[in-house]
Design goal:
alpha+beta; six-stranded mixed β-sheet; two-stranded antiparallel sheet; about 40% helix; globular
């Protein structure tokens, strides 16, 4: 059994033995900072397909495939795009020195797709915390499905396939994961008294037109939970990259509200926020990570890095598996993407794995480059 398969088995065992009923959070901010008070209890994994106990409606004209402005239509080799790639005989797991990586997934309202994906990386010796965002429309390879949008990995295979997709496309060894459902975001933000954000005129108009967050204008202002949720979802006016930036700003805004809460206040907030989060971490490990993250965050700034950036990718319109055109984020070179990300962490001795090189070559063939 490979190291990656062992890690997957351990995740399942941990989830089966101890389901985490609740974690204190405020959007991803508290999740990212793991400022948590944890209750242990049996509860279903969101990826199990259980129906959510909420009802959120969006405009009837919502068309997910056209949400991001589509680029030029580019012909691709559709047969290669759906081809299943046989894994190299030896699958090495990349070790990034003292860094540990945790995957944070923001689920859509049906809990069937991950609309926001952030990698939290921690280096204890250097006292660094890094948040790395990646567009949900990134064109990646996923086992058994070929190339598709990264957000769809959760739909096809839940957390396991999402983690595998991150590991195989970017050489990121995911230690543990957290999922948070966006539906609970407004309530959580309201519990901390709202946040302060600066909006552009275009953002404010779009938040009202598409998400019912009326009465807002450009400028710095106090936003409630519903308005913050709308802000985090905006991307039709510009791009997936910009939406990642908005999500990070929202994270930091919430963090400013919660970082000075007392221990008792953390616990009180957790009692009301527990339904929104799931993790495969055990209680003891969670508390240790909480302690480390909180100590580092007091001494160092939280860094924001783009795993996939606009300077080294394009947003063409490609034909998908349903014979329709859709907008994707396609990196210029997958191996260089993994290398650049490591360089942002200060890792200079990294060599892309055989799997990443294999997927990168397949992507080049598909795109005809």
């Amino acid at each position: 059994m490979s190291e990656r398969e062992k890690r997957k088995t351990l995740r399942k065992q941990a989830a089966g033995k101890k389901m985490i009923l609740g974690i204190l959070l405020a959007v991803f901010a508290v999740l990212v900072l793991l400022a948590a008070w944890i209750w242990t209890h049996r509860r279903p994994d969101p990826s199990s397909g259980q129906e959510p106990d909420f009802d959120v409606t969006f405009p009837e004209e919502w068309d997910e495939e056209e949400e991001t402005p589509a680029g030029e239509r580019i012909p691709i080799d559709e047969e290669l795009a759906q081809e299943n790639l046989e894994k190299p005989e030896s699958q090495e797991v990349t070790q990034d020195g003292g860094w540990e990586h945790y995957l944070l997934l923001g689920l859509d309202d049906s809990e069937k797709r991950s609309d926001a994906m952030i990698v939290l990386s921690i280096e204890r010796k250097e006292k660094r915390l890094v948040l790395s965002s990646v567009p949900r429309d990134t064109y990646v390879y996923m086992e058994g499905k070929g190339f598709d949008k990264l957000a769809h990995a959760y739909s096809y295979g839940g957390v396991d396939l999402t983690i595998q997709t991150f590991e195989e496309n970017f050489d990121i060894d995911i230690k543990h994961y957290f999922t948070v459902t966006f539906t609970h975001l407004p309530e959580i933000v309201d519990l901390v008294g709202g946040v302060t954000l600066t909006l552009t005129d275009a953002e404010a108009k779009h938040m009202g037109d598409w998400y019912g967050a009326w009465g807002l204008g450009g400028g710095t202002q106090r936003l409630n939970g519903k308005e913050v949720l709308a802000y985090c979802r905006v991307r039709r006016i510009d791009s997936d990259y910009k939406r990642n930036d908005r999500q990070f700003k929202a994270l930091m805004a919430v963090y400013e509200e919660v970082k000075n809460l007392s221990y008792d206040q953390y616990a009180a907030l957790a009692k009301k926020a527990y339904d929104s989060v799931y993790s495969d971490m055990m209680l003891g490990d969670m508390l240790l990570l909480l302690k480390d993250v909180m100590e580092i965050s007091k001494e160092s700034e939280i860094e924001n890095v783009k795993l996939v950036d606009a300077a080294h990718s394009t947003t063409p319109s490609l034909k998908n598996r349903y014979d329709k055109y859709s907008s994707y984020v396609v990196v210029d070179d997958l191996t260089q993407t993994a290398i650049r990300w490591r360089e942002s962490l200060g890792i200079t001795d990294y060599t892309p794995s055989k799997r990443v090189q294999q997927i990168s070559k397949q992507l080049d063939k598909i795109m005809g480059r």
